[in-house]
Design brief:
Blueprint: E1 24-27, H1 31-43, E2 47-53, H2 60-64, E3 67-72, H3 83-93, E4 97-99, H4 109-117, E5 121-122, H5 127-134, H6 136-145, E6 153-154, H7 161-171, E7 175-179, E8 188-191, H8 194-212, E9 217-221, E10 227-235, E11 241-253, E12 256-262, H9 269-285, E13 291-298, E14 304-310, H10 317-324, H11 328-336, E15 353-360, E16 362-363, E17 369-370, E18 373-374, E19 377-379, E20 384-386, E21 389-395, E22 402-403, E23 410-418, H12 421-433, E24 436-438, H13 444-451, H14 454-458, H15 465-469, H16 481-506, E25 519-524, E26 527-536, E27 539-544, E28 555-559, E29 567-572, E30 575-584, E31 587-592, E32 595-602, H17 604-610, E33 624-626, E34 631-636, E35 643-644, E36 649-655, E37 658-663, E38 668-673, E39 680-681, E40 686-690
Parallel strand pairs: 1-2, 1-4, 2-3, 4-5
Antiparallel strand pairs: 6-9, 7-8, 7-9, 10-11, 10-13, 11-12, 12-15, 13-14, 15-23, 16-17, 18-22, 19-24, 20-21, 21-23, 25-26, 25-32, 26-27, 27-28, 28-29, 29-30, 30-31, 31-32, 33-40, 34-36, 34-39, 35-38, 36-37, 38-40
Helix pairs in contact: 4-5, 5-6, 7-8, 12-13
């Protein structure tokens, strides 16, 4: 299906075909955004060239493009970030223009200028606009000059930790330390005290240097209980700029967006217009001529302040496409080719609601630490548009591919669009339940749990949502109530299907009818749910055993599930349901709505014996500090024999450009250190142990 949007794409002015339209473009990026650009280029009849590092030799974007060029080793600093190699690839393949995607070189003024010098068109804003807005410090100065409301802060050069502390003390806590050249949550720290500023300043500079080659940071006041709302703008080279509504991006973890939606449940039409007009005024002030995003921090009272401008396509652009019917990638290409915008502000209307979840290769049960490895199974929900509900999946991976330590751990962006917010959320929850990934850990259980969270569903959001609702992190939970009963019912149905298949294989049914015991005890871990299950036509009828021993109301389960299918898809009493199925010894694991539990289906006799079985003891690793993810040891902050207090830094490990601080969970004495700075460790490798 077309990836773009439910509505049609805007045509060139006066319906004429642009004779200057590019015949071939190069995408200076990788992963899902490279695939995304290729899809739209293909719809426009434009040939594409992919570039790839040695680590991406077998990547999906390489397979999709018409031509592909190897540009260097796995490290981005030796491949995707080398301007000369991108230009050389353009000349080699005859590419007339370059789409930078997001990240990498997308907001580098030097890249746009180098392309222009080589006679190659940059599919993005002009270098002057990038210089004015792409740098977070300079953009705030420009916004202040344009009389745009900005958050109090210090925009000058910060000399050292002492200077940073002095600035923070003057602004007042909490403060945010943020990379000037960055984005995506990298090089960003929130500090609530002098000590946190001193530590966060160094970490932010190091991350900024590693991610963007620029270690400048600035400090600004952190607005308590804020919302993150951004306005999508679109300009051309003829002075026209419009805004395409807003996106709510308040659901964040460590300043990294997790879920986005459009429109925002906070804004009314008047506030939306004010924010949009302010964003357009700022864009016009710097002669902005492409797709860009003006970000605001908003109070719960609908007050808002300019935060920064991203001079590129945003990761979350699909939700805007879904509610406006405008393909932003296509518009960027047309603008770069010299076309006027075919849309005026009055033509922009928001229809329905869209929700996007970022599916990452990270383990939510281990503080969201990165996970790498091969995608043994990758079965996303089918893209579709049925009865006003659209499911879209933007991805850059495929089954058998590998998630590498070298790049961002994004697997996919799952987007749903429906007439209302509630319907879009319900569609997203169902699609997440049907999204099956094996071989690596991923954050789908967490995303599924968020979709059913009452506060999220109410739209009562802030950037502190995850920290407030999951203060101890995200842990495995036993399902209760209706969710537990749904999982138990599906488990009983699955057990019946497996049993029927086994009997057919053994021939037990030949020649005589066999009456099977209907009563089952379904165990979700050690929690028992007794029920009665019987085959009825193409489905099953389940009745739960009530407290007094009687059977409850019948529930009809219908599904075409067969043994080996990774997802049980069907209905319970007519309501759609998706449950992920993984085989384990003597049973299976079922995942639904953020819960993942071992399920055993016993007869009454088996259950009575199982109740006597003791649980095995887990190994005690309380005195050991293990590497929580594959990564590089940046520093060890303690020595053998040292006494440490709970909360003190023990080591810093870097993975996927993020520096992760490992802290002591309790007071103790360091007995032995097993790893040294510079060492590359596997997950669960021993770093140090306590006496």
């Amino acid at each position: 299906m077309p990836i773009a949007v439910p509505a049609g794409r805007a045509e060139p002015p006066q319906g004429r075909k642009n004779k200057n339209m590019f015949k071939r473009i190069l995408i200076a990026n990788r992963g899902e955004i490279a695939c995304r650009v290729i899809k739209t280029a293909r719809l426009m009849g434009i040939e594409t060239v992919a570039v790839y590092s040695e680590a991406d030799r077998d990547a999906l974007h390489v397979e999709m493009a018409d031509e592909a060029v190897l540009i260097g080793p796995a490290a981005a600093s030796e491949s995707y970030l080398v301007i000369e190699k991108i230009i050389e690839a353009c000349k080699k393949t005859g590419a007339e223009a370059v789409h930078p995607g997001y990240g990498f070189l997308s907001e580098r003024e030097a890249f746009a200028r180098a392309l222009a010098d080589a006679g190659i068109v940059f599919i993005g804003p002009n270098p002057g606009a990038i210089a004015a807005m792409g740098d977070k410090i300079e953009s705030k100065k420009a916004a202040a000059k344009a009389k745009v409301s900005t958050v109090p802060g210090f925009l000058g050069v910060i000399e050292d930790e002492k200077h940073a502390v002095k600035i923070a003390d003057e602004i007042g806590y909490p403060v945010m330390i943020k990379a000037s050249a960055g984005g995506g949550g990298k090089g960003m720290r929130i500090a609530h005290s002098t000590a946190e500023v001193a530590e966060g300043f160094g970490l932010a500079k190091a991350e900024a240097k590693a991610s963007f080659g620029d270690d400048r940071v600035f400090i600004e006041k952190f607005i308590v209980d804020p919302r993150h709302i951004e306005i999508q703008v679109l300009g051309d080279k003829h002075g026209n700029v419009i805004y395409l509504g807003e996106r709510e991006c308040s659901i964040q973890r460590r300043n990294q967006k997790v879920i986005e939606e459009a429109p925002s449940p906070l804004l009314d039409e008047g506030t939306r217009r004010k924010m949009g007009e302010q964003a357009v005024a700022l864009a016009k002030a710097v002669n902005y001529d492409s797709a860009g995003t003006v970000e605001f921090v908003a109070g719960q009272d609908k007050s808002f302040y300019f935060l920064e401008m991203n001079t590129r396509l945003q990761v979350e652009h699909p939700v805007t496409e879904m509610v406006t019917g405008i393909d932003l990638v296509e518009q960027m290409i047309r603008v770069a080719a010299g076309e006027k915008l075919a849309l005026a502000q009055k033509d922009v209307t928001l229809k329905g609601w869209a929700v996007e979840s970022r599916v990452y290769a990270e383990d939510p049960f281990r503080n969201f630490l990165p996970s790498i490895g091969r995608l043994v199974k990758y079965r996303p929900p089918a893209e579709s548009s049925v009865s006003g509900v659209t499911v879209r999946n933007d991805t850059g991976v495929q089954e058998g591919g590998e998630i590498s330590i070298f790049y961002d751990p994004m697997i996919a962006k799952l987007v749903t669009h429906a007439p209302s917010r509630a319907a879009a959320i319900e569609a997203q929850a169902h699609a997440l339940d049907a999204f099956y990934v094996d071989g690596i850990r991923h954050n789908i259980p967490f995303l599924s749990a968020l979709m059913t969270h009452p506060r999220w569903r109410e739209g009562n959001l802030s950037t502190g949502f995850i920290a407030e609702e999951f203060p101890q992190g995200f842990a495995a939970r036993l399902p209760e109530g209706d969710v537990a009963r749904r999982i138990a019912a599906v488990g009983a149905a699955i057990d019946r299907v497996i049993g029927e298949r086994k009997r057919k294989i053994s021939g037990q049914m030949i020649g005589r009818a066999v009456i099977r015991e209907r009563r089952r005890s379904v165990w979700l871990e050690r929690s028992e749910i007794p029920l009665d299950v019987i085959r009825e036509g193409d489905g099953f009828v389940v009745r739960f055993v009530e407290a007094e021993g009687s059977l409850g109301q019948p529930h009809q389960l219908l599904s075409s599930w067969l043994p080996g299918d990774p997802v049980w898809q069907g209905t319970i009493d007519g309501h759609p349901l998706a449950v992920q199925v993984r085989s384990v010894p003597n049973g299976f694991r079922l995942a639904h709505h953020g819960y993942e539990v071992a399920v055993n289906v016993f007869t009454e006799r088996e259950a009575s014996a199982a109740r006597w079985m003791l649980e095995g003891n887990k190994a005690d690793t309380g005195k050991k500090v293990l590497c929580p993810m594959p990564g590089l040891v940046i520093s060890i902050a303690v020595i053998e024999g040292q006494e440490v207090k709970a909360g003190e830094t023990l080591a810093v490990v870097e993975a996927m450009k993020m520096q992760n601080v490992l802290r002591a969970e309790r007071d103790g004495q360091v007995k032995k250190i097993h790893a040294a700075p510079g060492a590359t460790l596997a997950v669960d490798a021993l770093i140090l142990e306590f006496a």
